[in-house]
Amino acid sequence: MTDSFAAELWRGITGIYDAILEHPFVTGLADGSLPRESFEFYVIQDALYLRKYAQSLAAVASRAPVTGETEMFARHASGIVAVEMGLHESLLADLGIDPRAADAAEEAPTTLAYTSYLLAACGGSYAEGVGAVLPCYWIYWEVGKHLLEQGSPDPRYQRWIDTYAGEEFGAEAREVIAVIDRLGREIAPVERERVERRFLATSRYEWMFWDMGYRREAWPV
Asked: Is 37 one of the catalytic residues?
């Protein structure tokens, strides 16, 4: 096998990633055309999402077969609270939204679906959990780097871009990519297929999450 497992996984979502880059939420971050109301909605929903994502990372950490990876995922889980939640709190303050009011917001349908899927996937095997959480690292890092090349006229959007294109976030993404490559050399073909399904599903949820923010998704009834 000449291709790494990570490269194989990424190749399987190239159409999804292209659709993400073309989505008006993402293009609007770069050219400043993203409506403020959509960004506000997204930031609130992402803050709700990140709490469950941190729980998912903690669940993955608890299943890691080696101490170093247990420590890594536990560090990443706490880092989300310190770095990404800090970003969201500062953005909410700039937008004139009390972070405590955001805590009381209701999860939109896509937020609830995505976080529920993540928590369920991370209750399975270690490899499945890693495959499920990886797109949030990897896609955000790639999108951040892509947008950094363009920049944004909106300082709030630029702050978001700088965070996800930054070396600290990129270093964490590379750590998880290295884990999935190691697992790809060790797990049986049937488990590789399960990991691929998890990775594909959460990659689709990444597109859906930005689309949800752009539309300011509401419950239909």
From this structure: no
Residue 141 structure tokens = 């890092």
Nearest of 102, 141, 111 to residue 6 by alpha carbon:
141
One-letter-per-residue 3-state SS of 25-62: HHHHHHHCCCCHHHHHHHHHHHHHHHHHHHHHHHHHHH
Buried b (16+ CB within 10 A) or exposed e, 159-173: ebbbbbbeeebbebb
Task: State the catalytic residue, choosing from 69, 142, 191, 206.
Answer: 206
- Joined together, the tokens standing for residue 52 give 């469950």
Architecture of domain 5-215: Up-down Bundle (1.20)
Domain boundaries, the chain: 5-215
**Cβ 174 vs Cβ 213: under 8 Å:** no
DSSP string computed for 137-176? HHHHHHHHHHHHTT--SSHHHHHHHHHHHSHHHHHHHHHH
Q: Which of 84, 136, 142, 172 is catalytic?
A: 136
Q: Please give the Cα distance from 184 to 94 (Å, whole number).
A: 43
Q: What is the pLDDT of residues 1-26, one digit of tens each?
A: 447 999 999 999 999 999 999 999 99
Query: Is 136 a catalytic site residue?
Result: yes
Q: Using a cut of 0.90, tell me whether the model's pTM lies above it.
A: yes
Query: Residues 198, 200, 205, CA angle at the centre, nearest 5°?
Result: 95
